[in-house]
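Loading example: each entry is read as two labelled lines plus one structure line.
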Amino acid sequence: MTRTHARSGVVGFSFVLLSLTAPAWAHHSFAAEFDANAPITVRGVITQVRLENPHSWFFLEAADAGGKVEKWSFEASTPTSLIRSGVKPGFIKAGDEVTIRGYHARDPSQNVGAGRELITADGRSFAIGPMVGPAR
Amino acid sequence: MKRACLTAILTFAVVVSVPSSAGAQVPRTADGHPDLSGVWWPGTDVPLAPLPPQAPTAGAAPTAPSAPRARNPRPRFANLYQPSAVDKAKTLSDKDDPALRCVPVAFGTLNVSLYGLGFVGQIVQTPKFVVLLTETYHSFKLVPTDGRKHRDDVAPSFRGDSVGRWEGDTLVVDTTNFADTNWMHAEGEVSFHSDALHIVERYRRVDKDTLEVDATIEDPKVLTGPWKVPTQTLRLAPFDQIMEVGCTGVESAALMDAAARVNYGKK
């Protein structure tokens, strides 16, 4: 990701059919809400970060290929996990350009996903959600 | 020369022996038992490995159908259900998971009751109690190790009533008196149990940084036989305090709709 790309507000989706097992999501049913077979990548500008129990949320705005700005939200791991992962309170804030990779909601009409990885504008990567794969 | 050779030999012996003995060194309390105190986790609580490359492509909302999800290969409690329990399980799904309503699990998603619903737990050991603290839902187990029997004056509970004893260097934790209203695991995995649930866990600190936990689980009302849980290996975390992961009840199956409704006026 580059700043140029981020400013252009491109929203990218990529869906790959994968054979995956249940994720180690903290406590609620990942499968009930998100589609492990629908990975997505959204690049945009953070509007709000909530490091709150039991799960954190990242909200951002991103433009599609036609320039239309859409609001997105990503559920992330517990605040405790994020803090240990390096995403401490105030580290990501409104106005920051980020790329979030994760899995789309089962309802494809909603711009909501389960966040797995957050990449800052300078290329640093942070795990913000559980891996979709064999439980550890 | 002889002295030099002897010194060299002794030095070599020390160099060879110290690392292995130091690596295996298990801290002990004043009463001689292994000290299990510390924060224990699988090594990380969110995986740090990056996702595989995935090129963004501009486009609209997803419409592609999903491939069937592979079944979880982990050996589980429900694999041993009696036929009647199998029939009952067919009437339930992930949306019936009590954890969606902030009810703690009886055992744990990663087959370690110290973790409960999450991936991190802390042990505080005193001469009279071993205290198991679970980060997710901020729950605890008090395990008396002074020889007392199970309590007969408490109501059944989600996490049960525990007593402990030392068998050599192994702490044996015996837990009974469970309520039958929670599940063994979370994440939507159908795993109800009965009030006859009996969990025996064996904690062994095999070296300074490693704790192994074995468990045998019985529930004669719903299982065909004991479930011998595979050995779980826990690592000493590089921090000495867990934090709080609470449950508000909003992170339910309706979470997606609620988030959209509250934040964006959708649906």
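The two ends of chain B are 88 Å apart (CA to CA).
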